[in-house]
Amino acid sequence: MKPTIITLLIILPFLSLLAQEPHPIAPSEIHTRLGTQISNAIDEMNKEKQKPGHERQTKQVTVYVSDKHPASVSGEHPAADEERSIVSNLNRLTEGNKRFVTGNLKRKDFAAQRKEVVNGQHPYAIVITCSDSRVPPEMIFDESIGQLFVIRLAGNVVDSLALGSVEYAVEHLHTHTLVVLGHESCGAVKATVEGGHFPPNIAAIARHIEPAVAAVRTRKIPESALISECVKENVHEQIRLTMKNSPILFDAMIKGELFVLGSVYDLASGKVRFLTGE
Ligand SMILES: [Zn+2]
């Protein structure tokens, strides 16, 4: 499919926040990767950030998307409150993961928290991750009931059912932060790399991961780093598929109503690494 070229204005309102208070995650690092064009643009933005007197920037970026998407989209400023909430959401995830790593977990009163959410849910982040039993998001981010909206399929793949679930969270629960969380030593990624004959339903999972593996195979990656690189690339691939196959989520991202971050969980250390600039 021939890609349509869309020119977007990417606004950097986050930079104004930098001057006010330090954040563990710099607001300008909040981004999604939608092909190398966006990545390059983010690199440029980060360079601009270093220059004095550049509190708010406007950048023109060319993005390649599928013909499925509307031919023209205008970028809008996210509201200041929304910017702050996204920064605080990411900091909350980061701090929760730190507690998980150190074992210094916050005290949870499940009985009280269960009652609090009987009449409605307001999760602050959506997490798409693998079904692997070693990667439970609520534990990894030291959260409790009603705080994370989680979609889990082997290989953290996104099919239409997964996307429908994310769209529900964005449109009806007004959750603005989406984290796609891959993990080291992912069995689904390993199986796809090794190939072979899969039963039909497992083959469906492998098909979602194959483009990431194919992309990595075009690079000169040492065999020892192959799976790890495929895990990372698969996170980017699932974000790309999300944006390609969900016009609702793509539009939300363009309007600044949805921020998407890739990340990888390390089984041994318990640490989540956010893929900013990787
Ligand atoms: Zn996995």
Secondary structure layout:
Elements: E1 4-12, H1 15-18, H2 35-50, E2 57-65, H3 80-102, H4 110-116, E3 125-129, H5 137-140, E4 148-152, H6 160-172, E5 177-183, H7 187-194, H8 200-217, H9 226-245, H10 247-254, E6 259-265, E7 272-274
The protein binds zinc ion (ZN).
pLDDT averaged over residues: 78
Based on the structure given, which CATH architecture of one domain is correct?
Answer: 3-Layer(aba) Sandwich
- Low-confidence region ranges: 1-42, 53-79
Q: Measure the end-to-end span.
A: 27 Å
Number of strands: 7
Task: Please summarize the sheet with the most strands.
Answer: 5 strands, mixed
Q: Can you write the helix and strand succession as a string?
A: EHHEHHEHEHEHHHHEE
The ligands found in this model are: zinc ion
